[in-house]
Amino acid sequence: MEPPSWLDPERDVVLTPKALRGVVHPIRLQLLELLQIDGPATATGLAQRVGQSSGVTSYHLRVLAEHGLIAEDTERGTGRDRWWRALHRSLSFTFRAPGDPGDADTVEDAENYLRINADDAHRRTLAFVDSITARLGELQELPWSIDAWPLRLTSKQARDLSRQIRELVSTYRREPGDPDPRPGTERAVFQFQLLPDEPGPPR
Questions:
Q1: What is the distance between the alpha carbons of residues 126 and 128, in angstroms, rounded to a whole number?
Q2: Cα 73 from Cα 53, distance rounded (Å)
Q3: Rounded to the nearest 5°, which phi and psi values hold at 174?
Q4: Which of 14, 140, 198, 202 lies 20 to 30 Å from 56 when distance is taken between CA atoms?
């Protein structure tokens, strides 16, 4: 089966349920994201950013390396500090890979991975909301938004919508640590969720 146009197997990694074992950990996923966004770093530098000791970050970095998600950046090593780099520009997850739809042995890892990402998306959203008061002078100019669009879709329509959105967003992606030279560039995150609407209690 041909990969979708937004996915470059040489630059993007898509994990399946079986591949999550050993990867699903909040610190590991945070370290991987930092290496993908900001480029190569040492365990000491990353430890300061995630609020952990260098020993803890070194352990988690070695686990990520064992799973083929990062590698030692030997060109930057000084002999005392080991530098690490991400091997892919993005990480995603799917249940739809042929031969690995998830089973009783892997569903817990899949749930944990999705829960970590959902918690992180929630944290980012609240951080933006909490910053609004400090942005009073610029609110009219801000491009950021939080939207929820009620839809009715068939399974095919939902897959088509996801593909179209991913194809568009993929045109804005950069290589790990690649700075954008254009003036006014600001670090941003695109959070995409397309979920079944399970009505809850009244708000």
A1: 5
A2: 21
A3: -125, 165
A4: 14
Radius of gyration of the chain, Cα coordinates, nearest whole angstrom: 19
**Where does the pLDDT of residue 203 fall: very low under 50, low under 70, confident under 90, or very high at 90 and above?**
low
Q: Which domains does the chain have, with CATH numbers?
A: 12-170 (1.10.10.10)
64 Cβ neighbours under 8 A, 6+ residues apart: 23, 28, 31, 32, 70
User: Please, what sign has the CA dihedral across residues 177, 166, 114, 95?
Assistant: negative
Q: Are 57 and 50 in contact (CB under 8 A)?
A: yes
What is the value of pTM for the model shown? 0.86
DSSP character string of 113-139 = HHHHHHHHHHHHHHHHHHTTGGGGGGG
Residue that the structure tokens 């609004």 belong to: 132
Who's near 183: CB < 8 A, 6+ residues apart? none
Residue 79 has what pLDDT? 67
What are the pLDDT digits (tens) for 86-104? 999 889 999 988 889 999 9
Is the pLDDT at 199 greater than 80, yes or no? no
What's the distance, CA 91 to chain centroid? 6
Q: 110-137: per-residue pLDDT in tens?
A: 999 999 999 999 999 999 999 999 999 9
- Tell me the β-bridge partners of 14: 92
Q: How far is CA 79 from CA 41, 82, 132, 145, in A?
A: 14, 7, 45, 45
